[in-house]
Amino acid sequence: MTTVEDASGIGATSAGSEAPTLFLRKATGLVRGWSVRDAVIYACLSTNVITLGVYEFSFSSPFPKGQLLTGVLISGVWVTFLVIAYSGLIVTIPRAGGDYVWQSRILGGPVGFVFAATGWWFILWLWAPIYGAILNVEFFQPILWTLGWKGAATYFGTHNGEFTICIVTIVLAGLLVSLGMSAYARFQKWCFFGGMVGFLTVVVLLLAFSHHSFVTSVDSQALKYFGVHGAYQATNHVGAGLGQVAPKTFGLGAFGDSMLLVPLLMFYLLWPNWGSTLYGEIRGASDFKRVFSGMFGGLWLTVALSVIFLLLIDKTVGWTFYNNANAASFNLKGVIPIWPYPVMMAGWLVHSEAFQVILLLVMGLWFFGWVGTLFLSSTRVIFAAAFDRVLPDAAATVSEKRKVPMASLVLMLLPAVGLSALYSYWGKFGSYTLDATLVIAVTYLFSAFSVVILPWRKPELWRASPASRFKVLGVPIVPLAGAATMGLIIFNLVEWLKNANYYVNSNDSLIFMGILYALAVVVYVVARLIRKRQGIDLALINKEIPVE
Amino acid sequence: MGPSVKIFFATDIHGSEVCWRKFLNSAEFYKADLVILGGDVTGKVMVPVVNHGTYWQVTLSGQTHQLESGSELEEIERQIRNRGYYPTRVEPDELAALNEADGSIDRRFTAEMISTLDRWLDMADSKLRGGEIPCIVNGGNDDTFDIDDVVEASPCVTFAEAKVLDLDGFSLASMGYTNPTPWDTFREAPEDELEKRIEAVVGQIPDMGRAIFNFHAPPYGTGLDEAPALDENMRPMHGGAVMKPVGSTAVRDSIMKYQPMLSVHGHIHESRGIKKMGRTLAMNPGSVYGDGVLQGAVIELNAKKHKVARYILVNG
């Protein structure tokens, strides 16, 4: 992307009366910067407040002294540094391969492969059943129960049902990869706008109705759909029995206790950089601002939506009830037989099945606008590794007729199906949800380290980067932001690994993640040996040719 | 003829001096027998360096520098060249007089381009041991026709456009034209005309079993030609996430028809990749010239079996 807006000369006009500072001639690739609005939408869908945020909020009961509001705000501020660091990397080395390219270039090919393969490929196998679980609890289950289709609803609550939905999710994501991004990107945008209409509807409901109306609605609708009497009181009773004693009131709370929610909230707030791409050849300050604005806007739009959601939950749902319902569900003692989806309960304020189903369908757009991203990054990493001869050439083959990346789909789909089976049938495995965040966070850690050392490791590249011009007290902010990002991720890693409440540090979980890293190392080492025998030196890939 | 021929192929350096220097050193670095540059050699941007008497002023990536010493001036000009831009020293009134309407910008651009190319070819003479290491350069759609005679005149660099060159028993057929782009560049032609140009050059190949195509445009729909989809205002659509094939159908059809052993391409920088098309191994090493990195392909040809023995895409 060239910022023609910055330029003047041939094909562009000089800004005002100022003398031109560069001239462009007629040439390929001189395009204008892409829309910040698009970038905000993608970043907002990636840090998805409904599918990821609201889902993860319900797992906060092991941290009863932490306040979600404070945790979300701390996370937003801290992840902003990640946005700055990644903006720096994107405008310095604007490549679609992202972390793989940056780490390979700055830290070396083996590091790039191991952390890209684990963070953008292998761990996506685990994300497949997580996506499936979210589709189940936010879409299928509430809709089926509302429609009164108890048989189907009950089935999707069983292990077989959960596995079926995982397969549906995997097939859906695989199909979207096969069909290409063009139509899906348009669909994504409509999903975003539709999802926002749904969100606004929930906001209006929670604003318009009183807490008293909510209590009576919960009681009447839970009785209607689930045959549960006095659901509101019963939920609070179960919550109290579980020792869900605090926070009884909503607020900012203690900073330290809320900090412990940050490693939990990374499940949804760590991804504003998920879809960031930059194409172009003439990069200026406006590119850095544009990339930063897109991700920053998306992140803080999500934070704002989260804050609105939490404030309204406190106002209408009641903070104690919300936490009790989540704690009861988390401990498999829920009064209603499904996850207490706040959107479903907000819909209960209007005693109309049709309205409730429509609201759930519209809010489902948050999922469908997001699911396509599941396997896209994996395809890119697999292709890049195949072109680098680390993976067999066949891994990058695309079918002639339909242009489907068959081999890479197999490399993604089959393991994803296997992990989905484990996730669905082996309850223990289902608790490894945050492993999915941890492994990607480790990949980010190395990219953050790359940006910290970039000015020393690649001084010429850094000097040429628009990112090098943004300074505070003479110190470039991008490497500083990289250091702050490393701080964020190291803090999270320490908490994830030392605190059992995140369910990451169990032996089985660590073994699972260890296998992923070992697999990446083994693939790289085997590839290196095989290629050596074939007379191909993989070490050459990123070795720099001398200039003089 | 030896048992194998090792080629280093790079493309689309777009005026980046650091990439040209690396290209000249690539034969020694990769132990290649010959080096090929596939087109789009010249830069797209000219940066005025304005003489204000006691200092020189230049704006690079939006940052304005005032340079008082000769060494500062040389350093910034080096940085400009490495990025693929042409620094041009001007007086303030000269800068004000440059304008598109009377063609003075074009003339200035061409002069800077040609003087840079002359200097590059002089460098090649010393780096390539006076022609001992064969070096083949072709034009691309972004190269004006002014460069053809300049490269043709070089004693140690061979200009390849529309020719079939013998590479130790293998035949290299070259064409720098591409199918039309939204930018209406210099060497573009509709697909039917491209087909005629391809036929004209391919017709000179004595043995198709030993043929190598060096066509700047990648074959359509092969994954070697994926570029960000643009809207009517030349903005990447959907945040740059949507790619579409923009290669040439004439190039694709010629590869499928003649099945050369190897077909090397450029033009679409983002589309680094490899594609097997029947017997043909097609590749586009892509380009990141703006980063000062020379992407390329090291390819070893087996002279006895008439096939590509091994290859690797590199980021030099």
Structure description:
Chain A is mainly α and 548 residues long. Helix content of chain A is 68%, strand content 1%. Chain A is built from 24 helices and three strands. The radius of gyration of chain A is 24 Å and the shape is globular. Chain B is an alpha/beta fold and 316 residues long. Chain B has helices spanning 17-30, 70-82, 92-97, 104-127, 146-152, 191-202, 249-258; strands spanning 4-10, 34-37, 45-51, 56-60, 63-67, 85-90, 135-137, 157-159, 164-167, 170-175, 211-215, 226-228, 243-245, 262-264, 273-277, 280-284, 295-302, 307-315. The radius of gyration of chain B is 20 Å and the shape is globular. In chain B, 54% of the residues are buried. The interface between A and B is large, with 82 and 83 residues. Strand 1 (23-24) of chain A pairs antiparallel with strand 3 (45-51) of chain B.
What's the topology here?
The complex is a heterodimer of chains A (548) and B (316).
Chain A: E1 23-24, H1 36-46, H2 49-57, H3 68-92, H4 99-107, H5 109-147, H6 150-156, H7 159-179, H8 181-208, H9 211-226, H10 231-241, H11 255-259, H12 262-269, H13 285-317, H14 319-330, H15 342-347, H16 353-363, H17 365-368, H18 373-387, H19 406-425, H20 427-430, H21 435-457, H22 459-464, E2 471-472, E3 475-476, H23 477-498, H24 507-533
Antiparallel strand pairs in A: 2-3
Helix pairs in contact in A: 1-13, 2-12, 3-12, 3-13, 3-23, 4-5, 4-21, 5-6, 5-7, 5-16, 5-18, 5-19, 5-21, 5-24, 7-19, 8-16, 10-14, 13-14, 21-23
Chain B: E1 4-10, H1 17-30, E2 34-37, E3 45-51, E4 56-60, E5 63-67, H2 70-82, E6 85-90, H3 92-97, H4 104-127, E7 135-137, H5 146-152, E8 157-159, E9 164-167, E10 170-175, H6 191-202, E11 211-215, E12 226-228, E13 243-245, H7 249-258, E14 262-264, E15 273-277, E16 280-284, E17 295-302, E18 307-315
Parallel strand pairs in B: 1-2, 2-7, 3-6, 7-8, 10-11, 11-14, 14-16
Antiparallel strand pairs in B: 1-17, 3-4, 4-5, 9-10, 12-13, 15-16, 17-18
Helix pairs in contact in B: 1-4, 4-5, 6-7
